[in-house]
Amino acid sequence: MDRSPALPELVWLSDNLCMALRSGPLVVMAAAALWGTAGTAGVVAGADPVPLAAARLVLGGAVLAAVAVLARPREAKSRVALVRSRNAAPQVAARGLGWGLVLAAGAVAGYQLCFFAAVQRTGVAIGTVVAIGSGPVFTGLLSWLIGREPPSRRWAFATAAAVAGCAVLVGGGAAGGVTGGADPWGIALALLGGLLYAFYAVVAARAIGRGIESSVVMGVMFGGAAVIMLPVLLVTGAGWLAHPRGLLATLYLGCATTALAYLLYGRGLRTTPVATAATLALAEPAVAALLGLVVLGEHLSPLSWGGLALLGLSLAAVAVPGRTVAGPVDRAPAHLGSVP
User: Fold this and answer.
1) How many Å apart are CA 205 and CA 46, to the nearest integer?
2) What is the largest CA-CA distance in the chain?
3) Residue 7 within a domain
4) Domain range for residue 173?
5) Which of 74, 88, 139, 307 is the most exposed place for a label (fewest CB within 10 A)?
């Protein structure tokens, strides 16, 4: 079987990682672990957050779009009705999901803009906790509204505990430095970011559930987001790319923490309910905190250690299968039309 060079190797790598982990929740957590390394890589790059995020999304989106075009469907379900196609567009159009994925691409870009605007207005700790913590809640609600299946109690309690652990982990060491109240517009932007994240996660899960190759779904969403974010990168400037350290860090951010991470995330969504996946993605701040501790020489307060422990236990409760579904299963009922 012939093989397109270079870019499909990312698909091959994600496939083999999935085979090694053999578990949808663990694959999602592997993606979250890669996301958790982004902060450390950003420090190494030595660039401002907004242009760095734009560069990360432009590069990662371009790689994912190229993978979607070059990689052939690898599983029987992906070949249904489109076995001869190597192009992403026929797969998407044939299932009536085009506009949903276009809107999801806008949501991917919008999340980046909302998150950094929120952090600028209300601070890193509060902005991060609200944006990341609200994501699983919004995902569960959207999944419930669209899929008509309410969350289980286990998922609800574990998610609440995980969000609380995330809040304590992120805010525990910074509590003493917070002055004044939180900016309401900053909180609103962070909540909007969480809602946008939930929207594109649910759209991706529904598209994958309808048989579209996960790499195609991610390629369409993030390729579109890359086009949207390119003007942001051009306006804010990318002078740090002239330095080897900045260039290497940006390559890592785009290829590993975006392209590879979302290939893994897409594969995890094949067998993991989207609300559960959103909760498991809260492993990101835990990995970021541990990397800051080990690589950057940062310190965690006892309160933050407690938050880290609570977060870890909550994620374990979500990841370990039980007798009932841990979250609302995102399925596309036959009577529903295209993704909203």
Assistant:
1) 35
2) 63
3) no
4) 16-72+87-319
5) 74
Asked if the structure places residue 266 within a domain, the reply is yes
* Pairwise CA distance, residues 288 & 292, whole Å: 6
Distance CA 134, CA 197 (A): 9
Q: Classify residue 158: in a domain, yes or no.
A: yes
What is the full per-residue pLDDT of the chain (340 aa) written as tens digits? 444 445 556 665 666 555 555 678 889 999 999 998 888 888 888 788 889 889 999 999 999 999 988 865 554 344 443 334 445 555 555 455 678 889 999 999 999 899 888 888 887 778 888 888 899 999 999 988 887 777 788 888 989 999 898 888 877 655 444 444 568 898 899 999 999 999 999 999 999 988 888 999 999 999 999 999 999 999 988 888 888 888 999 999 999 999 999 999 999 999 889 999 999 999 888 888 888 788 777 787 888 889 889 988 888 888 776 544 444 444 433 222 223 3
Task: Return the number of other C-beta atoms located less than 10 Å from residue 231's C-beta.
Answer: 11
In Å, how far are 86, 271, 317 from 170, measured between CA atoms?
43, 30, 21
Residue identified by tokens 């299946």 is 149
Q: Where are the beta strands (DSSP E) in the chain?
A: none
In a domain, 334, yes or no: no
Joined tokens for residue 113? 């803009």
For the chain, first and last CA: distance in Å?
38
Is the pTM of the predicted complex or chain greater than 0.85? no
Rounded (5°) CA angle 286-287-290 = 90
The number of folded domains in the chain is: 1
